[in-house]
Amino acid sequence: MQYTPFYQYFPDLASKETRSIRVFFDNEWGLPADEYGLMELFCETRDCDCRRTMLMVVSEKSQQPVAVINFGWESRHFYEKWYGSNDKSVIADLKGPCLNIMAPKSKYADNILALICSTALTDADYVERIKRHYKLFKSEVKFRGK
User: Fold this and answer.
1) Concatenated DSSP letters for 115-139?
2) pLDDT tens, 115-134?
3) Predicted TM-score of the model (pTM)
4) Burial of 66 (0-12, 13-18, 19+ CB in 10 A)
5) pLDDT, tens digit, for every residue of 49-74?
């Protein structure tokens, strides 16, 4: 599966709707003061309906990724059926949120995961935005014949 940034197909919309989170000194997550952008990546396989995103969290100061978080918004049952197995560890990674073990991560990756889980992913409007972006992205992939 190849994952592609949402902005690659929808640059104008991404520039308006990409979420960022600013944290200040002495924050509850033990993170350096910074602004962290959440770049959405989606699966570019045409016939895949995984209903997941990877959130590449990028530090504004360093302009580098500090964590990649897998996030699937459907139920465990959905992922068991989609994957064809009920292997608990695999399904937990598909459903997320969790750190992507295949992606580079900073020493603050676990802290970033805690930040994202307690802020962005508890925001129902933001989760709905991710779902809407997913649908747009998958429609574009199908249109382009990928």
Assistant:
1) HHHHTGGG-HHHHHHHHHHHHHHHH
2) 999 999 999 999 999 999 99
3) 0.93
4) buried
5) 999 999 999 999 999 999 999 999 99
Computed on alpha carbons and rounded to an integer, the radius of gyration of the chain in Å comes to 15
Cis peptide upstream of residue 97 (ω within 30 degrees of 0): yes
Backbone angles phi and psi of 68, in degrees to 5: -125, 125
Domain boundaries, the chain: 3-141
Which residues fall within 8 angstroms of residue 50, CB to CB, at 6 or more apart? 1, 43, 72, 82, 94
Q: Give the three-class secondary structure for 48.
A: coil
The angle formed by the CA atoms of residues 38, 40 and 42, to the nearest 5 degrees, is 160
Do 73 and 55 form a contact (C-beta atoms < 8 A)?
no
